[in-house]
Amino acid sequence: MNKCQQEAAVSYQQELEQENADLKTSLALLRQDQEAGYHVQQTLLPDNPTQVNSFRLDYWLRPSLYLSGDFVDCWPLPDNKMLFYLADVSGHGASSAFVTILIKYLLGKYSETVQVSPADLCKQLNEELLAGGLDKHLTLVLGVLDTQTREMTYALGAHLPTPLLCLGSGEVRELEGTGMPIGLFPDALYKDYTCIFPEQGRLCVASDGILELMPGQGLEERQQAWRDLVQKTGGEIEALLQHLPASQEQWPDDVTLMTLTGC
Amino acid sequence: MQTGKLLAAKSQQTYLLKLVGDVRLTLCCTLDQLFEQVFADREVRNIVIDLSQADNLDSTTLGLLAKIAVKASVAGLNQPSIISSNPDITMLLESMGFRQYFLIMDQPVTTREELREVAQLSGSEEHIRAQVLEAHRTLMAMNEHNKEAFQSVVQALEDCPHPG
């Protein structure tokens, strides 16, 4: 190698080192940005647990990266009622997380009316998302619970797995009803379903990320595995988590659990 | 699982889109562009989406498929069809309410008897009548349902007085 070639090699090496350092700086900046986003999203979540009269809402939310397309919220309404929901926005990461914030804002605004109907909220949300042209949709479980009479009115927006009700007796049953996803079809219709929240019961809702962690081939088997697990653990979050794979690095989707327990 | 792939073809008025393997959102930009082309094409009247070789659809892809139905309806096209032979995918489509907007079939139309280019009718009125009659008799012979459905048409054609 002559002197000229040596000089060129050294200069090339320096260039590469500089580029490498620049890349590391950019990566660190992006990570800080994501972490800042994560903290904002965490702050927007409700207290964990949230107690409304004799009912307690617990949740556990794990984004697949930093920001989550899943979101949980609940707040008290007048007349001893409470509103709760679990939303799973399509995709994950920052773009889906933005939509979770929009939903929180919109549902907060819509639920200021005197009589809150979950189906009406779904319909309004559907129209607003379509009008926004965000090309994002979501599945949703949204309910209003009267903490005195234990009457629960809810609407389902194509949510999988089907929410489960753990009865005091140890039995588990699926919440009945169907509904369209939110933000996909302009003329989608939603329906209010009503049931009485069982004494000593628990409502157990998960985002579909949970199904990817369940054993079995196919959606049906995995839903059954999830149902069996809820039955076995009584749907209690800590107990459920003990049965999930420990290596969380490999979780492919956001995973969220939410329970509503009558005390 | 096979990496996702998109295949597309157009034959006369029908646009066929086939999704293969594990279809994830990285492919969706391509899908979006493709739709723009399809809806800009005035010739297209029918859209068929073949999912028979798809292993998995992520939610973003589902969202884009739903958009096809909405756009097709706005553009006045025929109701789009989905071919889905994977029970998991069919269950997912059902749970998302796709049956209201798509014709969902579990079998692709592949046999030669079913997929045949329709010849343009030409010639005399008598010739056309004979061809239509023949076609409906063939349809009637295919199955019981068709027999019932086309009985009256065949009857009418047979009763129709021969010209000349």
Mind explaining what this structure looks like?
The complex is a heterodimer of chains A (263) and B (164). Chain A folds into two domains: 1-44; 48-262, Phosphatase 2c, domain 1 (4-Layer Sandwich). With 263 residues, chain A is of the alpha+beta class. Chain A is built from five helices and eleven strands; from the N terminus they run αββββααββββββααβ. Chain A starts with a helix and ends with a strand. Helix content of chain A is 37%, strand content 25%. Chain A has a six-stranded antiparallel β-sheet with strand order 1-2-11-10-7-8, with helices on one face. Chain A has a five-stranded antiparallel β-sheet with strand order 3-4-5-6-9. In chain B, strands 1, 2, 3, 4, 5 and 6 form a six-stranded mixed β-sheet that branches. Chain B is α/β, with parallel strands linked by helices. The chains are: A alpha+beta (263), B alpha/beta (164). At the A-B interface, helix 4 of A face helix 2 and helix 3 of B.
CATH topology of the largest domain in chain A: Phosphatase 2c, domain 1
Q: Biggest interface pair, residues each?
A: A-B, 19 and 20 residues
Biggest beta sheet summary of chain A: 6 strands, antiparallel
In N-to-C order, the SSE pattern of chain A is HEEEEHHEEEEEEHHE
CATH architecture of the largest domain in chain A: 4-Layer Sandwich
- Total helices of chain A: the number is 5
Radius of gyration computed on alpha carbons of chain A: 23 Å
Which class of the largest domain in chain A in CATH terms? Alpha Beta
Order of strands, widest sheet of chain A: 1-2-11-10-7-8
- How do the helices and strands follow one another from N- to C-terminus of chain B? EEHEEHEHEHH
In CATH, the homologous superfamily of the largest domain in chain A goes by the name PPM-type phosphatase domain
Count every helix of chain B, treating DSSP H or I runs of 4 or more residues as helices: 5
Q: Please report which band the strand proportion of chain A falls in: under 5%, 5-15%, 15-25%, 25-35%, 35-45% or over 45%.
A: 25-35%
Q: Separation of termini of chain B? A: 66 Å
* CATH superfamily membership of the largest domain in chain B: STAS domain
Mean pLDDT of chain B: 76
Which runs of chain A of at least 5 residues are low in confidence (pLDDT < 50)? Answer: none
Distance linking N and C termini of chain A: 81 Å
| Protein structure class of chain A | alpha+beta
The amount of beta strand of chain B, in percent, is 15-25%
